[in-house]
Amino acid sequence: MSAAIKTVEALVDAGLSDGVGLDAVAARYAIAITPDVAALIDAADPDDPIARQFVPDAAELVTTPEERADPIGDLSHSPVEGIVHRYPDRVLLKAVHVCPVYCRFCFRREMVGPQGLGTLTATELDAAIAYIADHAEIWEVILTGGDPLVLSPRRLRDIMERLADIEHLKIVRFHTRVPVVEPDRVDGDMVAAFKASGKTTYLAVHANHPREFTPQAKAALARLADGGVVLVSQSVLLRGVNDDVDTLADLMKAFVENRVKPYYLHHPDLAPGTSHFRLGIEEGQQLVSALRGRISGLAQPTYVLDIPGGHGKAEIGASAISGGDGCFTVRDWQGGDHRYPP
Ligand code: SF4
C-alpha cells in the first residue's frame, strides 16, 4: 500500500496540485491525504469536492478579522490537559492531536498535526481519566482530537477498559474520519476494542460528500454496526463541497443507508484561513429548509454552530435564531445571547 501524501512535493508528484504558493501553507498547517482519499480525487476537475477538502490552497494564508485560533473555545474549559469540560454531564477527552488526513477547514487546525498539541503522555492520560472518575456528574466521554482512531486497537482497548471501571460513566463516544478516509484500519480488533462492560459506545462519523461512501468505507461502517457500535453522523456545511440541496440530500441518505443516523450539520467555524469555505447562515438555513421537503425525517440533521468563546452549540435552523441589524443573535444552553456575524 502506498504512503499518505504529506508534503507539497508529494502533492505535485501525485498530480494533485501545481504546488504554487503552498510552501507557506505547509509551513503553517499540516498536510495529509491517505491513499484512499487520493484515489477518490478527480484531478481533472478543478472544482472536485474531495480535493477541495484535503488539498491545500493558497487561500488558507488569508486570515479574516473574525477568525480565531481556538474558534470553539476549547482552551477556556480545560481543567486538566486533554479534557474539555464545557457542559456538566459530558467531557471531551483529547488523547491525540494527530489525524490520518488534515481537512483544510478544520476547526482545530491550530492544535492538530505534527506541530500541534501532540499526544497525551501516560501521566497526562492518567490525570485525565482520574478527572472523569472524580466527577460523578460526567455521564458521557467524547474521544476526539485529532482522530482517536489513529490509536492502535491495543491502546483503544486500554482506554475503554479504564473507562469501564468508572461506574457513573455510561456513554463513550468517538469522533472520527477514519471509517471514510482509512477504512481498512477498522478491522475486527478495533471493533472489538470498542466494547466496554456496562457502557454504550457511539461513533460519530465525519463525512461531507456522498462520494466519500466508497465500497471500502461502506464495509468499514458495516463492521462497526455489526459489532454493536451505534453510528451517528457529523458533517460540515462547506462552500464548494456540499452547499447544494442535491449533494446534501445524497449525503444524508448515504449515512442512513449505511446505518449512520444523521446527527449534526455544522456551520463552518471561524478557524483561521477558512473563509473560502464559509457561507452565510441565511444560505445555510435555506439549504436545510429545502432538505425538509426532499428527504425522510430519518435523514434530517440538526443544523448547529459552535458559539465562539466556548459557549457551546446552538441550533441555527430558521426557526431557532433571530436576525436583525446585520447580525444574528444565538442563544447558548444557559440562556445567554451572543452576537454572530451573518
Ligand atoms: S479529521 Fe477532524 S480533527 Fe482531523 S483535521 Fe479533519 S476535521 Fe480536523
UniProtKB/TrEMBL annotation:
Domain Radical SAM core intervals: 85-308
UniProt cross-references to Pfam families, sorted A to Z: Radical_SAM (PF04055)
UniProt keyword list: 4Fe-4S, Iron, Iron-sulfur, Isomerase, Metal-binding, Pyridoxal phosphate, S-adenosyl-L-methionine
Residues that, per the record, bind [4Fe-4S] cluster: 99, 103, 106
Gene Ontology MF annotations: 4 iron, 4 sulfur cluster binding; isomerase activity; metal ion binding
SUPFAM superfamilies referenced in this protein's UniProt entry, alphabetically: Radical SAM enzymes
Organism per entry: Devosia ginsengisoli
Gene3D superfamilies: Aldolase class I (3.20.20.70)
InterPro entries linked: Aldolase_TIM, Lys_aminomutase-rel, Lys_aminomutase/Glu_NH3_mut, rSAM, rSAM_sf
Cofactor(s), by name: pyridoxal 5'-phosphate; [4Fe-4S] cluster
Similarity comment text for this entry: Belongs to the radical SAM superfamily. KamA family.
Post-translational modification N6-(pyridoxal phosphate)lysine, affected residues: 313
Cleavable signal peptide: none
PROSITE patterns given in the database record: RADICAL_SAM
Name of this protein: Lysine-2,3-aminomutase-like protein
Record-annotated membrane-spanning stretches: none
